[in-house]
Specification:
six-stranded mixed β-sheet; 7 helices
Length: about 280
């Protein structure tokens, strides 16, 4: 095995120690599907990322890491990761991954109930549906577990931010139409922080836009983090099909001393889940 996937490390040293063990045992390509740093101020996240990845990659010049932030990360996490020569943030274009397959990353999730808003966007122009009476909007947003108010960052500074329910022109659907142009989806592995929205599969916190993107474009493999309990909710299932696509959940779980991770054979589409 030479490709491993982890997600939702949240700056936890025991998890980084287990990832280092994987690298020590021969993993040469590591995919990180977001939520890399612990919750906290940008300065604390920057320090945590510097410390943990310096520890992880020391003496590992032959390791390649593809990493994206998640909705618990401030933008400084992405900038700090870029300081390491082994790390690529694959959100700007398609990057070679294995054989003739490429990798493209996407960190955003639909607007959450939480306060960190750097990697949140409206899912689409249409969702969520709002009643005709503006006085009923707040109740409808709360029922959809959407908090429009929160904070965004600029460098190490934070500022108040509010999503406008009437202006959803910047949305995940629009972004996915753009990244669709990076490469042939059938020959691409997509590294998403967010899960797809699939009510039947008990994944209601996910993105409808991501589900539609997968159904329409049939990527080779899609990888998803974000939901710690998704695999438990699906009674141990972590691989499922959307159209011709093989979609996989990392399912980090909530035990800080446990690392759930995937190993991939990209060409054969063989995916295994492990726990250490």
């Amino acid at each position: 095995m030479d490709i491993a996937v982890v997600s939702d490390l949240h700056g936890l040293r025991p998890r980084f120690e287990k990832v280092k063990k994987l690298l020590d045992e021969g993993i040469k390509k590591l995919l990180v599907a977001g939520d890399i740093a612990p919750l906290g101020y940008p300065e604390a996240q920057k320090a945590n990322v510097k410390k943990n990845f310096a520890y992880l990659l020391q003496g590992k010049d032959d390791v390649v890491v593809y990493a994206i932030p998640g909705n618990d990360d401030w933008e400084i996490v992405e900038k700090t990761l870029q300081e390491f020569p082994q790390i690529t943030i694959p959100t700007d274009r398609a990057h070679p991954l294995a054989d003739s397959f490429s990798i493209v990353g996407y960190p955003y999730v639909p607007v959450t109930p939480f306060n960190v808003k750097d990697y949140e966007k409206w899912d689409s122009l249409e969702y969520p549906d709002l009643p005709g009476d503006p006085e009923e909007w707040e109740k409808a947003l709360i029922n959809s577990q959407i908090n429009c108010d929160g904070l965004k960052s600029k460098g190490l500074e934070l500022y108040d931010f509010r999503f406008d329910p009437q202006d959803r022109t910047e949305n995940i659907t629009q972004d996915l139409a753009r990244i669709r142009q990076f490469s042939d989806p059938v020959m691409t592995v997509y590294l998403f922080h967010c899960t797809p929205y699939l009510e039947r599969e008990k994944l209601p916190i996910g993105s409808r836009a991501i589900t539609e993107f997968i159904k329409t474009n049939n990527p080779w493999i899609t990888i998803h983090g974000h939901s710690h309990s998704a695999v438990d909710r699906m009674k141990g299932r972590f691989v499922f099909d959307i159209g011709d696509t093989k979609s996989v959940l990392v399912g980090a779980g909530n035990d800080p001393n446990v690392l759930n991770f995937l190993t991939l054979d990209i060409k054969k589409r063989i995916i295994e889940r492990h726990r250490i």
